């Protein structure tokens, strides 16, 4: 059974190991807002010292990256293809983490396959993200920048090259003697509004409810996305997440997205 963490004010500032475990387990949004499947993000479970919580933030990219040596992959399914057609479709993403965002720059590289209809892998694009921790203490703060739509091919050739900058903060919420990790992100990006032609602001908040369940809400620049993530006991290499995209049906594109996330923290060593 996990040990109870002391009250917030009594906890020492996280050391390098604590921050490393947080980086390895935070909800990594890898920018999978692809045209065909609209699968939004890849999230990984949060492991802090003492008490694990499944912290997640879905629907928008965070300022954090996968730690060096981690490889990840995801299968995303959506109930409305391209956000418009009432038929299921899917997408895939594969990526890895390089560098160290704690002491220098962390880098995350991702390849996206945008649809599972037609020939496998016949459309997609690449993206890259960098991250840097700018403050530590009890509430680490990260800055990040991401470029999407690189090296497009197939039906994804119309995906524009776009950029985002964001900040992600990790405070804690103390309720009834228990500590709940929070993840807050605020960012600005190109190609977010008006059919992905205009820039906009995005923001979101996530909470680790317990070792299995995480919840989040995010404003993507035009729509509200509500998400939940589930981590299975004794399975540290997989999570499953579900989202209601465009939850208020503001654009008439309300849909359900389900994502299966796999990862290996020791895929390679430097």
What does this structure look like?
A twelve-stranded antiparallel barrel has the order 1-2-3-4-5-6-8-9-10-11-12-13. It has a single domain (about 10-265), classed as Porin. Strand 5 (about 140-155) and strand 6 form a beta hairpin. It has one helix at about 15-25, and strands spanning about 70-80, 90-100, 105-115, 125-135, 140-155, 160-170, 170-175, 180-195, 200-210, 215-220, 225-230, 240-245, 255-265. With about 270 residues, the chain is mostly beta strands. The longest helix has 10 residues, at about 15-25. The radius of gyration is 18 Å and the shape is globular. The chain is about 5% helix and about 45% strand. Mean pLDDT is about 80; it is low at about 1-50. This is Outer membrane protein beta-barrel domain-containing protein. Keywords: Signal. It comes from Antarcticimicrobium sediminis.
């Amino acid at each position: 059974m996990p040990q109870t963490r002391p009250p917030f004010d009594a906890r020492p500032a996280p050391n390098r190991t604590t921050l490393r475990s947080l980086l390895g387990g935070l909800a990594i949004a890898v920018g999978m807002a692809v045209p065909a499947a609209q699968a939004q993000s890849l999230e990984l479970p949060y492991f802090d010292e003492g008490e694990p919580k499944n912290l997640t933030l879905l629907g928008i990219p965070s300022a954090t990256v996968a730690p060096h040596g981690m490889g990840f992959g995801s299968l995303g399914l959506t109930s409305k293809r391209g956000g418009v057609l009432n038929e299921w479709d899917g997408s895939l993403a594969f990526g890895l983490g390089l560098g160290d965002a704690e002491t220098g720059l962390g880098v995350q590289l991702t390849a996206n396959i945008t649809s599972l209809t037609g020939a496998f892998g016949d459309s997609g694009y690449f993206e890259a993200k960098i991250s840097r921790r700018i403050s530590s203490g009890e509430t680490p703060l990260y800055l990040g920048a991401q470029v999407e739509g690189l090296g497009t091919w197939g039906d994804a050739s119309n995906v524009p090259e776009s950029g985002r900058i964001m900040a992600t903060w990790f405070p804690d919420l103390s309720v009834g003697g228990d500590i709940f990790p929070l993840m807050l992100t605020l960012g600005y990006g190109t190609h977010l509004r008006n059919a992905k032609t205009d820039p906009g602001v995005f923001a979101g908040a996530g909470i680790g409810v317990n070792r299995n369940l995480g919840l989040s809400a995010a404003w993507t620049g035009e729509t509200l996305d509500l998400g939940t993530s589930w981590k299975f006991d004794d399975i540290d290499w997989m999570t499953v997440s579900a989202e209601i995209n465009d939850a208020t049906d503001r654009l008439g594109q309300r849909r359900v997205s389900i994502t299966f996330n796999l990862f290996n923290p020791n895929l390679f060593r430097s």
